[in-house]
Structure formats: C-alpha cells, structure tokens
Amino acid sequence: MPFTIGNRMDVARMLLDAAGTAASKAGCKPAEPLRLSSPMVVTAEKDERASTPLCRIPGVTFEFGKDSAYQQQVGVVGERLQTCSVVWRSRGVPDEPAAQFVMASEPRMVALFDGLPEGNGQGLVRATCGGRRTVFYGNVEPGLKGRSRPDDQQVFANFTASVSKRIGCQAGENR
User: Is 15 helix (H, G, I), strand (E, B) or coil?
Assistant: First the structure.
C-alpha cells in the first residue's frame, strides 16, 4: 500500500522547516524565515481527481468517467513554465502517467525539445512569445487515447491556444 506524507504544499513546508532547523543548529540561521520562491499551485478542490477542463485549462477536456482513478497534478503555472499532468492511481501500484501538457520558454527547458518532430499531430509546437522561444508539448498515453473531447489533436491545439493567450503570445508571434 502506498505511503504518503502529505500533499505537495505539506511536503514543501516540512522540507523548509527541516532546512530552517538544520540551519539554526549549524549556526547559520537566515535573517528571514525560509519560504517558497517558485510557484506551487494548490487547487481549490478537496481532492485531485481529474476533471474537465483539465487543470482548469479551457478546452483541455477528457471523458474520465464517474469512478475514475485518474488524478490531475497541477504544476507550475507561470509566464515561462506551465505544467499539467494526469496519472492513473491504483492501490499498491506506482502512479502511471496518463497525459502531460507543458509550456516552456526558459532557454534550457526549450532546448530539451530540440530535434523532436513538430506539429499539432506530434504534440509539439514551437512559437516565439514575447521575443522568447517557446514550446508547447502534449502527450496522451494509450489509457487516455480517444477520451479527449472532441479528439486528442484538438485538445492539444486548445491547450496551445489557451496557454498562448494567457501568457500574451499574439497570434502573429505564434509559430
């Protein structure tokens, strides 16, 4: 049976507390208390069951079913990085990735996608947004293939359009 110590925010706070205690005992306690500096998103829902739209991204819709074991994992939602994942969870078995969506415009992150096939059908679109090279990536694993509404390719196009709009990527800049 899997063992959890808390949600992401609980774990982040625990790690900060441990680091603060260690720094204090080592005699190098910072003047200000340690705090999170990268965005960590907490969804308002009571649980992380995957819902529609996925990760609250307009147009990213799936048919999960009422008793689904799929859970969404909202990651960073920033101007240079946005992540959203779906995992399938089952007792006693490690989480299985089911879908991933990423927007990245940090140069080192963008470079990770160099050489991969491009296009909506490949799940990889490159753009220039605000003068920055930007990639939009989407992958739907076999367990969720065909559950995208209206279809997998359109859901990826919706993700690209929605996140482009959020980060201020003008249509003339895109591609």
Answer: helix
- Give the DSSP letter of residue 126: E
* Backbone torsion region of residue 115, taken as left when φ is above 0, otherwise alpha when ψ lies between -120 and 50, otherwise beta: left
d(CA 48, CA 43) in angstroms, rounded, equals 8
* pTM listed for this prediction: 0.71
Residue 118 near residue 72 (C-beta atoms within 8 A): no
Distance CA 140, CA 49 (A): 17
pLDDT of residue 3: 45
Q: How far apart are CA 61 and CA 51, in angstroms?
A: 8
Alpha carbon 148 to its chain's center:
17
List phi, psi (to 5°) of 108.
-70, -35
No. of helices (H) and no. of strands (E), the chain: 3, 7
Q: Smallest Cα–Cα separation from 73: which of 108, 98, 105? A: 98
% of the chain at pLDDT higher than 70 = 83
CA–CA dist 26, 46 (Å, integer) = 39
